[in-house]
Amino acid sequence: MKKSKRRKLDIAVISDVHLGTFGCRAVELHNYLKTINPKILILNGDIIDIWQFNKRYFPKSHLKVIKQLMAFITSDTKVYYITGNHDEMLRRFKGFRLGSFEIVNKVVLDIDGKKGWFFHGDVFDVTMQHSKWLAKLGGIGYDFLIMLNTFVNWVSETLGYSKLSFSKKIKNSVKGAIKFINDFENTAADIAIDENYHYVVCGHIHQPTIREVNNEKGSTIYLNSGDWIENLTALEYTNQAWSLYEYEKDDLVKKEVDAIEVHESELIGNGAHSNTEIFNELLQEFNIQKFSK
After folding, report:
1. Neighbours of 251 (CB within 10 A)
2. What is the mean pLDDT of the chain?
3. What is the set of domains in the chain, with CATH numbers?
4. For 197, which of 21, 117, 118, 276 could close a Cys bridge (C-beta 3.0–4.6 Å)?
5. Beta bridge partners of 210
6. CB proximity list for 174: less than 8 A, separation 6 or greater
7. Rounded to two decimals, what is the model's pTM?
8. Is residue 102 within 8 Å of residue 81, measured between CB atoms?
9. What is the pLDDT of residue 256?
10. How far apart are CA 293 and CA 276, in angstroms?
């Protein structure tokens, strides 16, 4: 099947990928990244899950995502890596630049004459600020829940039933979770209005949305890119408008890009290649791509 050209975008935003965890939907993300050509790509936190990283678990599908991100870096795409809580170790490298790649804690862009404020959002999380051990424990529990959910969905689909999302049901039914999400969104929007930002773009809470927020001082557009564990969503800006990309509604990308099956033999540590060898291969590929342009 002949594949269509990559979609040209002014800005693409992804967040909460959690590479290195069982819940990460790297195959689908790689499929998506192969279909877009953004001028600016914003990685809005928690791309690599350093909290839960296990050197024995980093499948080829996760590695392919990193290779695709490197391909963007060696092209004309400006890539911002905004640090999140699960990759907070990278915050010590704030300001690092390599070609079109830059590590930052936040980004402010002029978007067709309107100011856009991009940051991960964990700064608003009280759990993160005061009880980091509890947040990490919650992250491990969330990953286990996703693993359990994956198994249940496999059984459900085998029996001819539809998929379920445990964490979505929990978030939508627990009043505390709903209040946390609303408080998070309103806090980000209120600060954006105070600072005269037309757009405020976050991640962190895995809740994709685009909505206008108003208070007595004015209004702003609050956006959240969601995640690549359950929602499989991204934000796209083109033709002077934002839209929410949803992988499950993109029949074209699912038909045109081959899915990658991950077998146990592909896990780093179980195969013949060590971490060092694989990342040396990545570096070699980076140089080849860089100088072949």
Report:
1. 8
2. 77
3. 7-292 (3.60.21.10)
4. 117
5. 223
6. none
7. 0.74
8. yes
9. 58
10. 26
Q: Which two tokens stand for residue 67?
A: 């290779």
Single-letter residue type at 254:
K
User: Which tokens is 279 given?
Assistant: 């990342």
Residue whose structure tokens are 């980000």? 188
pLDDT of residue 228: 95
Q: Which residue has the higher pLDDT, 261 or 112?
A: 112
Any idea which of 15-24, 226-235, 271-280 has the lowest mean pLDDT? 271-280
Please, are residues 19 and 65 in contact by the beta-carbon 8 Å criterion? yes
Lowest-confidence region among 85-99, 153-167, 190-204: 153-167
